[in-house]
Design goal:
Layout: E1 2-7, H1 13-22, E2 26-29, H2 31-39, E3 44-46, H3 47-51, H4 66-73, H5 79-88, E4 95-99, H6 103-109, H7 113-118, H8 123-133, E5 139-141, H9 147-155, H10 161-190, E6 203-207, E7 219-222, H11 226-230, E8 232-235, H12 240-254, E9 261-266, E10 269-275, H13 279-289, H14 291-294, E11 297-305, H15 307-313, E12 318-326, H16 328-334, E13 341-344, E14 357-362, E15 365-370, H17 377-380, E16 383-384, H18 392-406, E17 413-417, E18 420-425, H19 431-444, E19 453-456, H20 464-472, E20 476-479, H21 486-496, E21 499-502
Parallel strand pairs: 1-2, 1-4, 2-3, 4-5, 11-12, 12-13, 19-20, 20-21
Antiparallel strand pairs: 6-7, 8-13, 9-10, 9-11, 14-15, 16-21, 17-18, 17-19
Length: about 500
């Protein structure tokens, strides 16, 4: 039995080769892998002894050879194949272990296109695909994490067709993701990211309990191992909807840097938000906005959950708490709650992956776009349109309202007072309805919005929303501007003594 080992990532390769050698396998290798194995005392044959042809063109051609691919691809159970292999002097290669040139690491390190081109693997993917195609007879190993299980399968006679089929699927996933990454990079460099094809690949992080509904299956797939690296599932089994809600809450809570932000989300929409001196105060104020909706909701905490905060949270039923981290005593508090799910990132503050793109499924395909960014300077650089200028606290409230509005389903209007959200209307077909719905809910909750700041993620097309805001006691408003009736809106703000700011940036979220 012969194994061909040719890897860029040398982790564990000496141990794997040694294990194969002990089982009586003959080892063939290439270039750097050959040197590594040889130096470690592994009895290894250099590839050109098999190909009968030297590596050439600066290593661009070394395994693209009939003695290699014939050895991999010929069917062991086909008499004609076996006879032809004998006639041509082709010996079988029964295991191929390959991981590919580090293209991702290269494009992260340099813009040098010549170097990038040289880190596009050709022979590696070809060998992987050959071995995967002939998985009936050949083991294809592309994952360092599989070395131990492959050796165990060979030692225990568990090298079954089903086992090889699992490795085959991994191999085709590996080459597909690799080629997709290269194509996306080239389109990003030369076509502004919008080529004839768009490849979206993710690695499964975990299976969710179910999809949006119990009769649907679901799983979380991640880009660049972000979830695996930054999220620890400390308690419970998350559902598809839990992950979606966590994402919404996380985006809002993490967008305020080091501040003690707490966001409560229900069904993808914020029902509470606050920034106070402590996280406990922030949660308490966030809960005041809509405690009814918060029941069974998701909370994102931009900091470390203490025992005191955990006790407060434990007063109602929460589906998920997502935080930078939890004190051990806080975890003990949540232990009695059987249904709660806890996620931590293991740091002091929440962080986001900051994906560069966004996409949404539509019937028969998906729409794809550059990711939206709600930047801090949008509020700081907003243009004052009114005679009245907002106070420092009002500007802070405008910033909070603007970010929450931009990260909430349109049409959306947000009211913030003393750094806490006091009312929100979202997902409405009319911006007037969104504004009025928010005020109606605040009145039902006996929340006084007098002196609040208000934000709309898109312009107000008529002055009626400004008139309604004035009647409710709103003192500052921020919106993108851009309506043909902006002058009427500005006039209304001045009539009511409201400070009005235009950001000139719209943030629809559909």
């Amino acid at each position: 039995m012969r194994a061909l080992l040719s890897v860029s990532d040398k982790a564990g390769i000496v141990e794997f080769a040694s294990g194969l050698e002990k089982l009586g396998w003959e080892i063939i290798s290439t270039g750097g892998t050959y040197k590594t194995l040889s130096a470690a005392g592994v009895n290894v044959i250099e590839i050109d002894e098999v190909t009968k042809f030297p590596e050439c063109f600066e290593g661009r051609v070394k395994t693209l050879n009939p003695y290699v691919h014939g050895g991999i691809l010929h069917k062991r159970g086909d008499a004609a194949h076996v006879a032809q292999a004998k006639e041509l002097g082709v010996e079988g290669i029964d295991l191929v272990c390959v991981n590919l040139y580090p293209f991702k690491a290269t494009i992260e390190r340099t813009e040098d296109f010549d170097e990038i081109i040289e880190n596009i693997d050709i022979g590696g993917p070809t060998m992987v695909r050959s071995a995967a195609k002939n998985f009936n007879d050949v083991l294809i190993v592309t994952d360092v994490g599989d070395y131990e299980s492959v050796l165990e399968a060979l030692q225990t006679n568990a090298n079954t067709l089903e086992f090889r089929r699992g490795l085959m699927i991994k191999a085709f996933e590996h080459t597909a993701a690799y080629d997709g990454m290269i194509a996306n990079y080239m389109n990003g460099r030369f076509n502004e990211g919008f080529g004839e094809y768009q490849f979206i690949t993710g690695k499964k992080s975990f299976q969710t309990r179910y999809g949006e509904n119990p009769h649907q299956k679901g799983a979380l797939y991640e880009f660049d191992s972000h979830f695996t690296e930054h999220f620890k599932q400390l308690k419970g089994e998350a559902s598809f909807n839990n992950i979606n809600d966590v994402n919404g809450a996380l985006k809002i809570a993490s967008s305020f840097g080091d501040e003690n932000a707490v966001c409560i989300v229900k069904h993808g929409n914020p029902c509470g938000f606050a920034i106070k001196e402590t996280l406990l105060e922030s949660y308490t104020e966030a809960l005041r906005c809509d405690p009814v909706s918060a029941f069974g909701g998701v909370v994102a905490v931009n900091g470390v959950v203490t025992k005191e905060l955990a006790v407060k949270m434990n007063e109602i039923f929460l589906e998920v708490v997502m935080a930078a981290d939890f004190e051990p005593e806080a975890l003990e508090v949540f232990e009695s709650k059987k249904r709660i799910k806890l996620f931590a990132q293991g740091g002091k503050k929440l962080v986001m992956a900051k994906d560069k793109f966004d996409f949404k499924h539509v019937d028969g395909g998906f729409v794809y776009q550059n990711a939206d960014c709600i930047c801090d300077n949008e509020v700081h650089n907003a243009k004052k349109q009114s005679k009245l200028e907002a106070s420092a606290q009002e500007m802070k409230d405008l910033e909070i309202a603007w970010k929450v509005a931009g990260l909430t389903k349109s049409n959306c209007v947000v009211y913030v007072k003393d750094s806490a959200m006091v009312a929100v209307g979202m997902g409405m077909t009319s911006r007037v309805d969104a504004a009025q719905c928010a005020l109606k809910k605040a009145k039902e909750m006996d929340i006084d919005v007098t002196g609040a700041a208000m934000a709309s993620e898109a312009f107000f097309p008529f002055r009626d929303s400004i008139d309604a805001a004035a009647a409710a006691g709103v003192k500052a408003i921020i919106e993108p501007g851009g309506s043909i009736r902006d002058d009427e809106v500005i006039e209304a703000a001045n009539e009511h003594g409201i400070s009005l700011y235009f950001t000139t940036v719209r943030h629809f979220l559909h």
